[in-house]
Hints:
Elements: H1 12-17, H2 27-30, H3 41-45, H4 61-68, E1 97-101, H5 103-116, E2 132-135, E3 141-144, E4 150-154, H6 157-163, E5 166-171, E6 177-182, E7 187-191, E8 196-201, E9 211-216, E10 222-227, E11 232-240, E12 243-252, E13 259-264, E14 281-286, E15 289-294, E16 300-306, E17 317-325, E18 328-336, E19 340-348, E20 354-358, E21 362-363, E22 368-373, E23 378-383, E24 387-392, E25 397-403, H7 413-416, H8 427-433, E26 441-444, E27 447-451, E28 456-461, H9 464-473, H10 477-489, H11 502-526, H12 534-554, H13 558-569, H14 573-588, H15 597-609, H16 613-620, H17 630-639, H18 643-654, H19 659-662, H20 667-682, H21 696-707, H22 723-731, H23 733-744, H24 751-768, H25 776-791, H26 814-822, H27 831-840, H28 844-853, H29 857-866, H30 874-883, H31 889-901, H32 903-909, H33 911-921, H34 926-932, H35 936-947, H36 961-974, H37 979-985, H38 991-1000, H39 1004-1014, H40 1017-1040, H41 1047-1070, H42 1076-1090, H43 1096-1106, H44 1112-1121, H45 1123-1126, H46 1130-1173, E29 1201-1203, E30 1209-1211, H47 1212-1217, H48 1234-1239, E31 1260-1263, E32 1268-1271, ...
Antiparallel strand pairs: 1-28, 2-3, 3-4, 5-6, 6-7, 7-8, 9-10, 10-11, 11-12, 13-14, 14-15, 15-16, 17-18, 18-19, 19-20, 19-21, 22-23, 23-24, 24-25, 26-27, 27-28, 29-30, 29-31, 31-32
Amino acid sequence: MAESPDPNSLFSSSSQLHLMEEEAIDDKEFDIPQVDTPPTLESILSQEGEEAFILEDTMNTDNMDAHSYDTSSLASSDSGDPAHPKRYRVAASGSVLRLSLLKGISAQIVAAAVRRKHKLTILFLTTMNSLIAVGTSHGLAFVFDTNQALRLCLGSKATGAEFGAVSALSINHNCSRLLCGFAKGQITMWDLANGKLLRTITDAHPPGTAILHIKFTDDPTLAVCNDSGGSVFELAFRRLMGMRSCDSRCLFSGSKGEVCCIEPLRSPPDYREHPITQYSLLAMASLTKILVIGLKPTLNVWMTFPYNKSDPSNVPQLAWHFVSVQKMVNPILAFCKGDTVHFLLVKKEEMGTIHVIKQRQLHLSCDIISLNWINSRTLVLVDSQEKLHVVDRPTQEVLETLDLEQVQLVYNSRHFKSLATGGNVSQALALVGEKACYQSVSSYAGQILCLGTKSAHIMTLRNWNERIDLLLKQEHFVEALGLAWSFHEGTAKAVVGLHGDPAKRKAVVSDKMVEMLLQFSEHALKKCPEQGKAQSTEQNFQEVVPVLLEYSLLLHRLDLLFDELYPRLAVSPVAKAIFLESLESHIVSTRLDHLPTPVIKDLLSHYHTNGMMDSLERCIVHLDVTSLDIQQVVQVCWTNRLYDAVIYIYNRGMNDFITPMEANEDVVMGNKLLVYISCCLAGRAYPLGDIPADLVVQVKNQVFDFLIRLHSNDSSEEEDVFPFIRTLLHFDTREFLNVLSMTFEDFKNDKQALEYQQRIVDILLQVMVDNKDFTPSQVGGLFTFLARQLVKPDNTLFVNRKLFDQVRRPRSQRCVLLDLLQVEGVVQFNEDRLLVLAEKAQFYQICEFLFEKKHLYDRIIDCYLKDPVRQCEIFSYIHNLLSMPGYSSEEKQRVRSKVLQHVQELVSLDPTKSADLVSCHFSDSVSSIVSELQDQQLLFSFLRCLLEPREGPGPALCPDQDLHELLLDLMCQFDPQQLLAFLHTSQHYRLEEAILITEKHGCVEARASLLEKKGDVHGAFAGLLQMLKDRLHHFASESLAETSNSPEHCESLRRVQESLDVVLAFSHRNCSSLDQEQRKVGMVSIWSGANSRSLKEMTLTVLNCMSSFISLPAIIQQILQDPVYGRGKLSEIQGLILGMLDTFNYEQTLLETTTNLLNYDLHWSLAHLRAAVTRGLHPLQDHCNICLQHYKRRPDSGEEVVVFSCGHLYHRWCLQQKDCGSSSASELQQWRCYKCSSSHMQKRGPPGRPNRIRSTSLAQFICCSAQVLAAAVLDLQQEQSWDLTRCLFRGPSRV
């Protein structure tokens, strides 16, 4: 097993990183060594060319992990209150990242800041040879070696005063050169071997801009830089004749959009020969898009990708990494601006072109200010709240969140604002710079380095073993085991230090998990509470023991489970009991089918002692029989009636399938035996599994022989024959027959099985038929069983005719006999005798079958009518028989005659269906049918269903006035409430006859409706008014009798109200056809009839109605002349008058409001019309569109021109020549555009109608040499509205 890395080594974790196993990724991606055993820590540290930093923590590693940094999620992070210490919380993947302080570098930085009053600003960067460079605000660059000792101090105070602060740093891949960019725009190159200044570049980019980024490419003679003007430049270093020079080329100009981030593709040593490296790719992030260009062999833009809409202050981020996708290693560019990370796969096609493929996006709920790869599957993101997120890219899972508040990141906002050169940058770039920390977070070789204002920090992925140990130290055993199992299965994220070979990986993790399980058990036993706290002890072991069982079985370590863990837990009775009870779920799920003998004995004893018989039975039937003490188990099972276990042991342990069936005196055993017999005959083992193939036939024969035994082994003289079949039939006849039915399904070509089948059927008939021990329902079940067998097409059973004499038994057997008839199982039986027996037993379905066989379809109707269960189906039967082909006309005629004979019964059953049947098939016999119906109520129901309007395409009867008048007469008798609806919907009656019918039955409202329809409004009104007066008189007589609170009085009042509503509605409908005097006489008559002191509400209703047709003075005069109110006080009629005045005020307000709205709409229309006719026109050309000459042919010419709203211009004379208008000036509205009317010639109407396309326009003008005349046209409705407005608002003005 690999050792954990030394916490004092900077690159130990990165070295272990290359040992991470990833089945879907090539080994080269992580540089997995081809060795049989993992490298040791000493071998890693002793490798040449890769020396390690001395890593110093602020405290020891464990204390730091537990207290120094918050690794909780954002939702659980503390508020920062110093009184509330930050607590460590384990994420789903454990603690993935280790954050440590580089004390040596931090001390040097703080000392330099104190001594020289420097302000730390920019960057550190690590390379393959372990160098870190840090720039300061005074123009100095510190270079630290592997021991965190200051190796070089590059620059001087004079350099800082001249160039400003260091704003960007870059080290080439072999750590021989350092490029420094400065806030005032200069660039210097240093030799890191001796600290010599090699170049000072002042003209690489426009002056007055700061260097934001400077990056070496894989080519040591080529670098790129980005300034605060948003431009990107290529720097090519040359040395000729001992002279060093630098050629600069602009790759992207800031005038096209400022670039604020650049990232060249720098390949690790193993991929230096990758085909993509020859193009020297460079990614650039502007404020609006991402660009990927190739610097070699020629400059070429390979891809542009615009951002989605985001906050302008979001910082663009870029990061390259080589990733294995589908067994091919290619670079992936990760970029983001806001909360979404995009991934672009860059690959070289066979044709030599670069192909960019968009991958799945990663969405977060925070704004990202830093983006770095830590390996090919894991990214480290920093959000705007300085929370660091470790994210697994394939699953998009956030593995850990770490608070960087204590780090105090350095932001390079001042350089994005270019303060050293006067702040001459765009507002957009300055806004992005508020959150820019490009140079403060950097990654290399599986490490993340952070620069704070007073410290430097390093983050590495924890070794897998270290992650587990950290959880164990915190006593999170369950989480630790879950994490270890994810390592074992290869599903863990951000794994460091495990073998790539799955077998070796599982072996290493398995050994670790065994140690953890033993440690967990010991911890649980030590954690047991003192005596007297049994509940706490049980809860403790309930959380521990199932976990121990689960992981022992997952590891397939039964020796660990039963030889080490069980003896340890058996010391505690509580732990032992929980262990034995926890075994049940694993045994039932077949994960555990063999137990050691001591465990079996303890299991039996514990379950038996605690009465857990059902659980014991479930365990026994899932265990291997060879691991059981058969004698002990069988005795326990028989004693406790564990019949499933008994059957299982006899079958599996002794190959005995008969003995369990002999003990069937128990009800529970009887139920199980039915299922057991079914399984045995079907070749399945009971209660689970299958019978061995070589025993299937033997078991079937043994079971059949057992069932058909004549006597049992210990039979007595009184025992009946076939005792076992009798017992099963008496126990549950239906289920036993169902078992036989399912068994017979499998018998096809087995001759012996078919013989057994016939033998069992014969025994069933012998035992059950004519046996008083069996109830009729049991015999009926036998009939059903036999019928189903005989129906089968491959049936070979023979049934004795004695069976069919059972038709005289109860009705439950009728369906069975019907099935037998349908499969012709009674061909030897006399059908006439069977028909007589069926009619006597009232088996109408059997009678129907026999009648249909003889084509006596009319007799079937009698069967339906006599059968109370199937009476309603007779209508469908008659309809289908008369509609479908295949029946002779003679047969159909007999059916029609039978229907007409029983029409009274059919209508009694369902009038609606009878009417449908008559309308479809008996429309020529309606008169005879009506004459057959003697019952008036029945006749009314039939006619209403027959004559009511029908929806859909169904047949309709020809209108017969006599039938409709008969229905009207019956409706007056039985349903007068529906009279009005019928009269309104039906038109097939004679008006005079209908009036006489309604008058005969005293239906006043219906008669009034007919009179109104006839035109006799006065007669209808007189009848309704008389009805109102009669009801008022009746109501008044009841009021005098002092029965005002009785239900009869309330009903009378309701009828008066209804009558009044009918009279008023009639008056509203017909007053428009009367003159003023007739209206007054009619409404006064209603007033006279309804006027009463006791009916003030109704009186007010009448007055409101009168106010709509009679003038207000006439109404008041009528009130004052009325004897009811004329002699009283004013207070009695005050309410009536006030109500009328309120109505008048309301109607006056409504009229004024309506008038104002109409006037406003008219004003709006006229205003828009005026705006349209006064709008100036702009000709499209200055020449006539017909003669193509200038509109003013001669300067002194007074020739008129015409301009249309479409923009075309013509001479008036030219339009007249083309017949596009009249010659008189008074007919300006007749001009039309020549070009527009010609292009729409197909759409023009008749010659007499003006064309509306471009003619008679409201914006048509005639222009003269000195004036402009406008011709506006109003349509007829607008002219009428204008005249009405002038009349309404005529005043002293002359307008």
